[in-house]
User: Fold these one by one.
Assistant:
Number 1:
Amino acid sequence: MLKQQIAARLEQAFSQYGFAEPSVAQLKAACEVSLRTLYKHYPSKEAMIIGALAYRHQRYLDFLQQGSPATGIEAVKHIFTQLKLWMQQYAPHGCMSMNAIAAFPDNAEIILAVKQHKQDVRQFLAQQSLRADLATQLFLLHEGISSAWPLLGEEAIVSAHQTVKQLMEINL
């Protein structure tokens, strides 16, 4: 349980300060634990990042499913509506996973954690849409919104809803 609490606080700290800025001492303070306890659960800054990303991954998938219609076009529209709320509340500067790769482009473990997250999101979109054949297109739309959010904001979601409707109706 303590490890999850630390991961939650690490997620908040990295989301707020980015990956380059906070020192381990700052992360320890954000987690409200001793340095020994922090290192017991996460023995390096990279391990702390991976722990924060794993925690955020599950929180994100749970968030996308909140109040969702079962499956189909309405479920996909709901995902993009939830994405809007996520970006507003938790990711106004873009995708935390992609920011992690930008900060640590040569770290294989961080890259692997991000790849797994992105694969799971793609699979989730396929399951919710009932359209495995459109999983890549829906995923690219999702990623485009995450990247464009700081510039386009809500306009990206409006466009996504239109595109989802066109994709799913044309490709029946």
Note: The chain has one domain: 2-170.
Number 2:
Amino acid sequence: MNSTTLQPTFRTENRPAEPVPRCRQPADIFESLFQSIQGGEVHARPTLELTPGSPFLPFLEIGYALRACLEKPSRHDYLIERLRPHLSVMIGTLPASILPMGMLPKLAPLPSFRPLEAISDEEVRDWLILEGGLIYGEMQRFELENYFDAIKPFLSPGGVMVDLGSGLGKVVMTAALTLPFTRCVGIELMNYRHRLAQERLIKLLTLTRKGLESLPRPLTLDTPLLLPSGLPASGSHLLELGSRIAFVESDMFKFDVRGASLVFLYSTCFGPLMDAISNKLARELQEGALVTTTTYPIKHPAFRLLQSHAPGTLSWTSVMIYQRVGPPMIEPASEVRYLHQPDVAAWEARVRTELAD
């Protein structure tokens, strides 16, 4: 396949979703399952734990130091001074975590926490990169339907799909329902998101069992089945759904994707990480494996662009489909590809306007 492949006509909004009172055919089961995994973008976001031993203590320390400057007008100039060198790794005008609805606890910082003056520029930069990765978003149902329509011509039956930064698991579960993957795996660093993904999976499997039990004619492993993507499958697709989905609480950089045939990256907040992610995927993926990204392209010689979808077509943001090409790569690509510098004067004007409100 190449970039000239005929592209499908994409949906622009969600279809009306009527509740499924009873499952009389497999299509009813699929519809009830899709409805059960919607709405994750509006979930409650708990604050990070401010307790001794928390893995987020270093993140909290720097976050508190930045927020202390945000909360005192006399410190605004110093806050701007400390953030200015790191605009290339910031998401938004000000870091979301230090704003009133951010993930920092409202409690006072621990006595051992340092003020911003005692925190190095390198630590601030690393904090901003991590902070961007904590921002959460989801594709809507129609966008995921568009996505799987776009990706299916490049996939062979079977294979392993991996979502790096899987959040509440919506993409992983949608993939497992829509296409005949052998296994779909979600990797998520944040414990509360991983926990919610597991809870949603339990709900999904419970609804699957109830739907199968309500069918007028029992589904067998060999019963012919038409998937929501239009591809053929068998009853095992629903009967063995639980064995094909897994969620792992882990750092994406510590999870080996060597066996993946498709890696999904909702990378809109991963801009500063794209070089490291691209190098990791180049080292681990086999030739022919697919990678898709949002917002940020992959600029790495080990990946060939198959399709690029502009914002407002497949999704609200751009979506790119790549294929791993060439021999295995041991060393990272030498070129640094994501060094960019936004307009400093425009950013500072926005910050001062927001701080004055």
Note: The chain has two domains: 26-42+137-324, 57-135.
Number 3:
Amino acid sequence: MFEQVAGLLTEHAQLQEDLADPALHADPARAKKVNRRYSELNKIKVAHEHWQQLQSDLEAARELAREDEAFAEEIPELETALAEAQEKVRRLLIPRDPDDGRDVILEIKGGEGGAESALFGADLLRMYMYYAESKGWKTEILEKDESDLGGYKNVQVAIKTNASDPSQGAWAHLKYEGGVHRVQRVPVTESQGRIHTSTTGVLVYPEVDEPEEVEIHQNDLKIDVYRSSGPGGQSVNTTDSAVRITHLPTGIVVAMQNEKSQLQNREAGMRVLRARILARQQEEKAAEASAHRSSQIRTMDRSERIRTYNFPENRIADHRTGFKAYNLDHVMNGALDPVIESCIRMDEESRLEALGQ
């Protein structure tokens, strides 16, 4: 079942030679991609060697058991270990999402529920910031539109990881967060103590490694500048530092006013614009090859309700995987791993099924 391993090991050896070549590191973007692929293949190489060693040990134990029954006691344990090693290699051979090692731009947008939705948006931002901190990732607020009560009508955050292993990348974990998040709780604005249901949207984009990766012509951009404003429309800047960038071919609009400098807002806006264009291109490819993407639980439908946060019951439930736990307080403090792992496992199972393995 591991016929493809030989080819991957050959590729691994070639990448090892490439990484030893100083010329590669003169191109940081290419070096980063080579490092990601090498790390991915190295895990397969190590797991395959372990499987081969266990197979050899089992054959030796069976042969020795014919002469000495004492060796027979080792056979069941080796058989179990061999089956586990084989399953590990099998899962590592599942084709990865090529973007798994990328950083992400995560956007939280208010939905149904008005002020309560914006307040929950702030709670989600805090949850993701704590989760990133637990992973050792770096975060940077690119843009925020605060509500009068201290929530966020819209907030965008860049999440970066230095992991060379794609499976530990920000996109590998956070790509499943895109969709509608539903909250059930008593809002601070509710005087009767009634439980309300509100929704907040989350969008996740893989960040572009290098600007050249997504081609944007200056003539395709319409750039407007204006004076930034805070909650309630109050002016927070006396200069025209806010920037609105419209990409005419796609109609994508990005507005930035978080920084006091027009240049900084423009740079942040271009980062988000590149990520959104890349995501648009990926969606178009996915639509063309939907059969190959059908195994993924990550949806391109941003209106899908993916998760419910029930505060009175302290319950978190993911509607795609069936995951349910009564530790919402811990999840809101960044303990997202079990929820996300349920998404990763379901995605792997559906990929395996699609491959017919």
Note: Residues 5-92 form one domain.
